[in-house]
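ok so I'm stuck.
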Amino acid sequence: MPDVKAVAVLGAGTMGHGIAQVAAAAGFRVVLRDISREFVEKGLAGLRKNLDAGVEKGKVTAADREKTLANVRGVVDLAEAVREADLVIEAIPEDLELKRRTFAEADRIAPAHSVLATNTSSLPVSAIAEATRRPERVVGMHFFNPPHLMKLLEIVRGQKTSEATVTVAREAGRRMGKECILVTDTPGFASSRLGLALGLEAMRMLEAGVASAEDIDAAMTLGYNHPVGPLKLTDQVGLDVRLAIAEHLAKTLGDRFRPPEVLRKMVAEGKLGKKSGQGFYKWAP
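replied:
not stuck anymore, here's the structure
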C-alpha cells in the first residue's frame, strides 16, 4: 500500500473543494478535478474564500494559506487528475451509477497501487467497488460539511476492502486532522442513519404543528447541546441531498425513513436550503 503523497479529488463542489483544502493543508499534492473549467474555478475560489476567512479570524496564518494554495491545482481531464495519485477521493453527486462509472474510469487510469475512496454519505461502498478491478483497494471516506471545520471522518469498510486500505484511509485522515471512526458497509452507515432519523422526525413535527422550526431546533441545541438543530442542519446539507438519502434508506431499511411530504414539496419548489437561499430558514446570498 502507498505512502500517500499525491491526492486527486474528483468533484469541486462544496465537499470536493473542502476535502481538497484539508488535504493540501496537510501537505499532500492535490489535484482538484471537475467536468468543466467553470466548476473547477468555482471550487478553487471557494477554497481560497475558506482560507481567507481563516486568516481573518486568526485560525490560519498567511504563510499556511499560501502553502495550502501552492499544494493544489485544478484540472478538467480525469486522466490528468488521477494518473499519479496515490489516493483518489470521489466527491460527486449521490448517484450510484454515476459513481460506478467514475470509479470504473479512474480504475483504468490510476496507478495499480492507488486507493480509491468515495465520499458517499449513504450509498453502498461495495456496489461502487464492484465497478473496479481492485475492490480490495476501495473504501469509504465520508467527510462532513464543511470539511475544513468538521473533525469527523467516517471510514467505511466494504465487503472486500483490505485492512491495508483501511490503514491508508486512517493515516490520510489523521494527517488531515480528522478523528476517524470505522463502520461496516450498511445503509446510511452510522452518521447519516442517525442524523437523518432526527432530521426526518423534526420535519414530521413541523408538519404536525408541534412547534416552529426555530423552536424545534432550539430544543436540540439548548436541551441536548447539539451545535446546530436538525432543520437548520438540513438546510446546510441541502434538502435535495437529504431527500435522496431518505429515499435510499427507505428502500433498504424500511418505512421509518420515508421522506415527509414537506421535504418532497420544498425540493420540488426549489427550496433546497442555504445554497438556494430558502429552506426551513431564509439565508442571505
